[in-house]
């Protein structure tokens, strides 16, 4: 009898603990269902509707999607601009971040101050940073062109040029590579020193140690930042909205900026919802491809032991 009573008490305590846990989780669960899952489901339903906010939604079938892929030339233009941005920004972002991390991984006096200086741009609000870079990239008296003029080089028009507007936004985005730099720095400091020592004993020079030791050991970090960078760069919006508004000649009309126009300028919410789901499915497909290919080049030390 005593054993049965003890077992019942234990079960009762476990039940109480479980209920307490669920009660603490309940506010988050309600918020997640109401503000995340609910809008996601609503946007999927609206993507099949003709909905202009001021009038009730009307079922339109697949018309939003057929117009997107068949008639809307700006859809293809915005996707092309975004793919250009992603293809240029992501590799440059990773290269700049890893180069900064290697530079800031040295044992030099005052290194914490240098790390702070390189990290600060990544915490500057995007709108403030965009306004600052509008001044820096001003063609006539901007900082960059003024420095180029001192060297006898005529600077480009930057944001006023259809050829240089997207590179200008990419340069501005690279300015905020501090967050990725910190992650790479943490990865570098986690590389076992005995691997470098063994490679040095085998006669490997600095470049060979970097290629055969540093990069394989950093591959999980590279993969993590690659996935996040691709997802984030497909959603570029603020800098283009503040700095160019999509111009000149729609050369910086990125996908999210065009989606914003459709939703909040033209009040075509159903069409914008369809665009959002196409973007979601595209990013999901790219992410799945990256995870599928990860086994071919990502090195996890624990798996090799």
Write a concise keyword list for the protein shown above.
305 residues, mainly alpha, MetI-like fold, two-stranded antiparallel ribbon, 2 strands, 72% helix
What does this 3D model show about the protein?
By secondary structure, this protein is mostly helical. It has one domain (63-280): MetI-like fold. It is 72% helix and 1% strand. The protein has helices at residues 2-46, 63-70, 73-103, 111-119, 126-136, 143-150, 165-174, 178-189, 193-201, 206-234, 238-243, 255-265, 269-294, 301-304, and strands at residues 49-50, 58-59. Strands 1-2 form a two-stranded antiparallel ribbon. Strand 1 (49-50) and strand 2 form a beta hairpin. Helix 3 runs antiparallel to helix 10 (206-234). The protein starts with a helix and ends with a helix. The model has no long low-confidence stretch (mean pLDDT 90).
Question: What is the topology?
Answer:
Elements: H1 2-46, E1 49-50, E2 58-59, H2 63-70, H3 73-103, H4 111-119, H5 126-136, H6 143-150, H7 165-174, H8 178-189, H9 193-201, H10 206-234, H11 238-243, H12 255-265, H13 269-294, H14 301-304
Antiparallel strand pairs: 1-2
Task: Please summarize what this structure is.
It contains 14 helices and two strands, in the order H-E-E-H-H-H-H-H-H-H-H-H-H-H-H-H. The protein is mainly alpha-helical and 305 residues long.
- Provide the low-confidence segments as ranges: none
Q: What's the total number of strands?
A: 2
Largest sheet: 2 strands, antiparallel
Q: Under the CATH scheme, which class?
A: Mainly Alpha
Instruction: Give the overall pLDDT as a whole number.
Output: 90
**Which shape, going by the Cα principal axes?**
flat
Helical residue percent band: over 70%
Give the CATH topology. MetI-like fold
Q: Number of helix segments?
A: 14
End-to-end gap:
51 Å
The CATH superfamily is identified as: MetI-like
Question: How many domain regions?
Answer: 1
Strand order of the largest sheet: 1-2
**How do the helices and strands follow one another from N- to C-terminus?**
HEEHHHHHHHHHHHHH
Radius of gyration: 26 Å
Beta-sheet strand percentage?
under 5%
Which architecture name does CATH use? Orthogonal Bundle
The helix/strand class is: mainly alpha
């Amino acid at each position: 009898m005593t054993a049965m009573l003890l077992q019942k008490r234990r079960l009762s305590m476990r039940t109480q603990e479980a209920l307490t846990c669920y009660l603490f989780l309940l506010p988050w669960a309600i918020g997640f269902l109401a503000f995340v899952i609910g809008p996601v489901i609503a946007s999927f339903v609206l993507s099949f509707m003709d909905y202009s906010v001021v009038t009730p939604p009307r079922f339109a079938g697949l018309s939003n999607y057929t117009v997107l892929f068949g008639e809307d030339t700006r859809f293809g233009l915005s996707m092309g601009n975004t793919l250009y941005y992603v293809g240029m920004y992501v590799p440059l972002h990773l290269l700049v971040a890893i180069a900064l991390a290697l530079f800031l991984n040295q044992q030099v006096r005052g290194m914490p101050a240098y790390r702070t200086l390189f990290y600060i741009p990544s915490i500057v609000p995007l709108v403030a940073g965009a306004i600052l870079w509008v001044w820096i990239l001003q063609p006539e008296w901007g900082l960059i062109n003024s420095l180029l003029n001192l060297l006898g080089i005529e600077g480009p028009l930057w944001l006023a040029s259809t050829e240089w507007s997207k590179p200008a936004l990419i340069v501005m985005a690279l300015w905020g590579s501090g967050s990725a730099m910190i992650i790479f720095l943490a990865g570098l400091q986690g590389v076992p020193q005995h691997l470098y020592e063994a490679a040095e004993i085998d006669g490997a020079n600095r470049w060979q140690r970097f290629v055969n030791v540093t990069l394989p050991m950093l591959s999980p970090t590279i993969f993590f930042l690659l996935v996040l960078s691709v997802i984030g760069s497909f959603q570029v919006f603020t800098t283009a909205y503040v700095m160019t508004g999509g111009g000149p000649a729609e050369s910086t009309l990125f996908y999210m900026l065009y989606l914003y126009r459709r939703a909040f300028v033209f009040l075509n919410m159903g069409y914008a919802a369809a665009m959002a789901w196409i973007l979601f499915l595209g990013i999901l497909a790219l992410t799945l491809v990256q995870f599928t290919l990860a086994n071919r080049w990502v090195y996890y030390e624990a798996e090799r032991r």
